[in-house]
């Protein structure tokens, strides 16, 4: 039994707000010594007369090779290691010229369409609907599970992963680019790992983990929206099915039961060991990637999929068995590892659906109506009076406080979350 789907979320999807040109990570074509030395990542789309004649689809007007304009605003005080991390002013540490696609064209070589568009000229609308996983037919459920498993096994056709930081990207001899192939699903895990990894400050120094670039901050929702869109797009290409969508899991409907933890969906518990996932689920065969984060942080390497920097290999540890049901076991998820569990996808599509609902409900990005403007003006005027009235006394008290920036905005809520955090041994492990 499950409650009806009261929240009609996910009925939504494209077009997306807040979505801009994807700056994908390392397109395979741009991982050559020449591309890295020149800083140019502008692959040919369909060259007719030799290499370099159709960079970014320029011959058909899809795009052009242009200088990268990265966000140059200063970092906030929490991040005091300017210039130490490859992710700053992305992707300038690697490339300073990339494809800029016109109109509805998109992709690292302008060969695809922006989300929401399809067709050779990217001029046909396509609506992709994310649905509640439990509302899918048996055939649709099987299709989704098989597609995830296929993504876990299929080498990503376009992107590879860097296994070293920019300083060492050309290898010890300066001539051997340090990249590896990765499967479509593992690329999804890797991208997440890359966004949360610590900043390496040098051998023997502790890496800086004080800022998580994709969690616990305003980027959380939009970054994960991008992250899901990337997986969805990759799976559409893999399946040759432009309308393929990731479903979502409304985890409230099952109450205290994981209603998607069945072998036809995300896997049930093993009958032999309650901490393991059932061997009848395909996911019991999945291996975990990006597991040795501490090693990467001390050695200054990057997660290179399965192989471990120190050379140890333990197949049992790397299977998903150990991570199964991690989300359902309190807050044990570890940020850098969490997407290894495919339930991550469904939790985040649901979060994204709630985000979408919020955007729609408050007309975000579409300005305000006249009654709203009047209401806002009146409320603002009243607030201003109130603020001036009590401001002086607070000012005096505020001066005595050590660090105003760290004071909670909503004290009740903050206290609640702080208590939750204290119960967790390692608070870093609570965010997925
Ligand atoms: C772009 O990067 C290349 C390679 O690092 C460098 O030689 C070149 O000067 C850079 N160009 C600009 C405009 O920064
Ligand atoms: C996308 O294509 C449609 C149909 O041709 C067009 O109306 C729209 O302006 C295009 N969008 C952009 C951003 O060029
Ligand atoms: C990576 O995959 C591509 C395409 O499947 C293949 O051509 C290439 O040889 C692979 N590279 C490595 C290092 O395995
Ligand atoms: C989480 O799992 C551990 C062992 O795997 C178990 O001891 C613990 O009770 C579980 N916690 C919850 C909240 O289920």
SSE map:
Blueprint: E1 26-27, H1 33-38, E2 40-41, E3 63-67, E4 97-101, E5 105-106, E6 112-113, E7 117-118, E8 124-125, H2 138-153, E9 159-162, E10 179-180, H3 184-196, H4 219-239, H5 293-299, H6 343-361, H7 370-400, H8 411-423
Parallel strand pairs: 2-4
Antiparallel strand pairs: 1-9, 3-4, 5-6, 7-8, 9-10
Helix pairs in contact: 3-4, 4-6
This protein binds 2-acetamido-2-deoxy-beta-D-glucopyranose (NAG) (4 copies).
Mind explaining what this structure looks like?
A hairpin with a 5-residue loop joins strand 5 and strand 6. A 3-stranded antiparallel β-sheet has the order 1-9-10, with no helix packed on it. A 3-stranded mixed β-sheet has the order 2-4-3. It folds into 2 domains: 22-73 and 80-127, no CATH class; 132-385, di-copper center containing domain from catechol oxidase (Orthogonal Bundle), CATH 1.10.1280. It has helices at residues 33-38, 138-153, 184-196, 219-239, 293-299, 343-361, 370-400, 411-423, and strands at 26-27, 40-41, 63-67, 97-101, 105-106, 112-113, 117-118, 124-125, 159-162, 179-180. It is 29% helix and 6% strand. The two termini are 28 Å apart. Helix 3 packs antiparallel against helix 4 (219-239) and helix 4 packs across helix 6 (343-361). With 432 residues, the protein is mainly alpha-helical. It has 8 helices and 10 strands. The chain binds 2-acetamido-2-deoxy-beta-D-glucopyranose (NAG) (4 copies). One 2-acetamido-2-deoxy-beta-D-glucopyranose binds at residues 275, 329-330. One 2-acetamido-2-deoxy-beta-D-glucopyranose binds at residues 103-104, 117, 123.
